[in-house]
Amino acid sequence: MGAFLAGSAVLATLAALSAACAGAVPAVREAKAPVAPPAAASAGPSAGSSPTGRGGPLAGKVVVIDPGHNGGNAAHREEIDRLVDVITGRKPCNTIGTRTRSGYPEHAFTWDVAGRLKPLLEAMGAKVVLTRPDDKGVGPCITERAAIGNEARADAVVSIHGDGAAESGHGFHVIMPGLVAGHNDAIVRPSRRLGLAIRKAYRVGTRMPYATYAGRDGLQTRTDLGGLNLSKRPAVFIECGNMRNSRDAARMSKPAFRERIATSLAAGLRQYLR
Ligand SMILES: [Zn+2]
After folding, report:
1. How far is the CA of 174 from the centre of ligand 1 (A)?
2. Which residue, 250, 108, 116, is CA-closest to 170?
């Protein structure tokens, strides 16, 4: 940790100020300390979308994977702090996300999981579209992320996050869209089915407990998230664990566990889409 001592005070501040990463509160100022890379980062997903596979249980299906946040956000606060309309309020265009106490950032976690999930879905015949092409860029805004799912006519949209809650809380939860009348009426019910399928597969596949600090039985419904309010396609968020909790962070920092996360998400999507 020696090299990161300068950042530890900043990280402590981040811990104190951290908010749920899905964007209830604008993110705090980014630390300038070097960031410890994950033990064995995957190359991440390849950019863009894939051709629709022939055959397979998900043939003809389109899945949009939204890896939360982005690696360039912290250096472009003016762009990502800009407020955008999410129908029920105004939210920052995007946020920097959270990180573990040892410095593994959420944007890298979500990018890595997306990179593992994409080929699993493609192997089952799905067309996969990502909401960002790499982990070095800025944004896109939550409004644009929702638009990508809509334009792709996604059969399912999964937004991947790691939470930045109080360190005493642990476990995962799936966030489903609440009704925003006149806007997302058509997706509330299918999104709930998607959420239930993903909750079950994630629980079984990762053995992660339901969140102790949010939602109930691993499920939460919200009407303040742009990605859900603006989606015209079935969509859920998953907070894969609490990156501020030492036990969850240790698991989420391991490539083998991220592979289990991806496998579990693929199983949940398959169950929903079949
Ligand atoms: Zn997040």
Report:
1. 12
2. 250
145, β-bridge pairs: none
**pLDDT band at residue 55, thresholds of 50, 70 and 90?**
confident
Distance 105 CA to ligand 1 centre (A): 10
> Considering only CA atoms, which of 71, 130, 123 is closest in space to residue 96?
71
* Residue 262 CA, distance from chain mean position: 12
Rg over CA atoms, the chain? 17
Catalytic residue among 78, 79, 239, 259: 239
Tell me, yes or no, if 239 is annotated catalytic.
Answer: yes
Contacts of 224 (CB under 8 A, 6+ apart): 24, 86, 88, 89, 91
How do residues 59-101 score in pLDDT, each as one tens digit? 999 999 999 999 999 999 999 999 999 999 999 999 999 999 9
Superfamily designation of domain 2-26+44-273: Zn-dependent exopeptidases (3.40.630.40)
